[in-house]
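Lecture notes, unit on protein representations.

Consider one protein chain, 85 amino acids long.
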Amino acid sequence: MSVGCFGELVGVSMSTVYRWEASPGDLNIEPLSLRIMRVMADTFDEAVSRRVASAIAVRGGLYGLYVLLKRVYQPPVTASLSAPP
């Protein structure tokens, strides 16, 4: 699998994948980040999971949690196209 394909699969850029590969030893994922990823994988569709995983990879667990909570609690945008009565 190419770096670009893997990055797309996990929702990160190619430079992030290269940075992971250059890091010595095992990838160390914060417990909070791991918990967020497990919950979203069990709860949300793939698009939401990828967006949150990308946020975690780039900015860490707290930012990932922010993105997840924003998705859950942000009211949907609705537009009314009907004429007033």
